[in-house]
Design goal:
The complex is a heterotrimer of chains A (128), B (117) and C (111).
Chain A (H helix, E strand, L loop, with lengths): L3 H4 L5 E7 L5 E6 L7 H29 L9 E5 L3 E6 L1 H8 L8 E7 L5 H9 L1
Antiparallel strand pairs in A: 1-2, 1-5, 3-4, 4-5
Chain B lengths: L2 H6 L4 E7 L6 E5 L3 H28 L9 E5 L3 E6 L2 E6 L4 H12 L9
Antiparallel strand pairs in B: 1-2, 1-5, 3-4, 4-5
Chain C lengths: L2 H4 L4 E7 L5 E6 L4 H29 L9 E5 L3 E6 L2 E6 L5 H12 L2
Antiparallel strand pairs in C: 1-2, 1-5, 3-4, 4-5
The chains are: A alpha+beta (128), B alpha+beta (117), C alpha+beta (111).
Chain lengths: 128, 117, 111
């Protein structure tokens, strides 16, 4: 499970956060001077939880329909906004679920500034 | 009587209105500020688009299953909201209100073309 | 034009679609035209829904800089689905440079 403080070291990261599948924000870290606030992260967590669920439904549907496997289980969802992006990961949860663990980690995510964003590095850091 | 006027006559209804599936035009009646009404219609548009999209995907996966969403409703502790087609209604969560609202909406919006979403 | 994307490492399929979701052109490995058409429809619907969510989020937070969204990505165990404007790609996670493809897509989608 990545530490939120370590996620802030990734290029372009303005904030790192953890949330439940219900969308409830559990914890967060902000880079100094970041325009992101706790209020923004609370809503972002809700929006991301909704979208991860929708992606999961779509991935399963797509695989059933086309027989093309490889999307399920969804590991990361990314929204590239006009100036900012958000990447959230459920890779840790899926690994724990597959291993039959009783307690499942929360979702983790980072908010990035597009100019400096390295999406793949963000995904890797979230999966670490 | 228009569906919006009809809904406004029901006990417990706080506001009702219409919004365009595309673009940002809307009209409403009831106890909402202009800003609240605008936000309400943005919310309606986004959520309706979401359920219609899911319905279309379900229809692709299960052709002929008749999954063609036309509306949605959400019920909180004190207030509820119902949307069918391009009409929305905000109401108090009191006994019978949601049923009456949905019954009227379903009848009035029976022919709404959801392809326009 | 989008055919160029298929030459990028790890890109398995690419489609361009119109504003109504209709496919304009598509190329893919292991997907037939019907499946590529469905991919266009899914990407089109998903893009519109996400745009709605981004509008809502932007409105609730009053934070500028999220809308209009440039794109989206869903990363699965082996594959990633990636959309920018009217272009959608399927990537092989093991082969594709995610950032490079996204950059190319942003460039190509606006031609």
């Amino acid at each position: 499970m990545a530490r939120l403080g370590n996620l802030l070291d990734q290029p372009g990261v303005l904030a790192a956060f953890e949330f439940r599948a219900s969308g409830e924000l559990l914890d967060h870290e902000l880079r100094a001077g970041s325009p992101i606030t706790t209020d923004i992260l609370e809503l972002l967590a809700s929006m991301c939880a909704a979208n991860v669920s929708i992606c999961g439904m779509q991935a399963r549907g797509w695989e059933k329909l086309t027989g093309m496997s490889g999307f399920s289980n969804v590991r990361e969802f990314t929204l590239v906004g006009f100036d900012w992006s958000v990447v959230v990961s459920c890779a840790q949860r899926e690994a724990q679920r597959a291993a039959g663990q009783e307690t499942i980690a929360p979702y983790q995510g980072v908010v990035l500034i597009n100019r400096d964003a390295r999406y793949e590095a963000a995904c890797k850091a979230l999966e670490a | 009587m228009s569906i919006v006027a009809d809904l406004m006559n029901l006990p417990g209804v706080i506001a009702a209105g219409e919004y365009a599936f595309r673009g940002d035009r809307y009209s409403y009646r009831g106890q909402l500020t202009e800003d609240q009404a605008r936000m309400c219609t943005i919310l309606c548009r986004a959520s309706t688009m979401g359920i219609v999209m899911q319905g279309r995907m379900a229809e692709t996966a299960l052709p002929g299953a008749g999954i063609r969403p036309r509306g949605w409703a959400m019920r909180g502790p004190e207030h509820a909201m119902c949307v069918v087609g391009n009409v929305f209604c905000v109401m108090k969560n009191q006994s019978g209100t949601m049923d009456s609202v949905l019954a009227r909406l379903n009848t009035a919006m029976a022919d709404v073309d959801m392809h326009l979403v | 034009m989008i055919k160029r994307l298929l030459a990028v490492d790890g890109v398995l399929a690419v489609c361009r679609f119109r504003d109504d979701g209709g496919m304009v052109e598509s190329y893919g490995v292991g997907l037939d035209q019907d499946q590529l058409g469905k991919l266009s429809l899914v990407a089109h619907e998903y893009r519109r829904m996400l745009q709605g969510h981004a509008d809502l989020f932007s409105m609730f937070t009053n934070m500028r800089g999220w809308t209009p969204p440039r794109g989206w990505a869903v990363r699965g165990e082996k594959l990633t689905l990636c959309g920018v404007a009217g272009v959608v790609c399927i990537l092989d996670n093991a082969e594709a440079d995610y950032d490079e493809v996204l950059k190319d897509m942003i460039e190509i989608a606006h031609w």
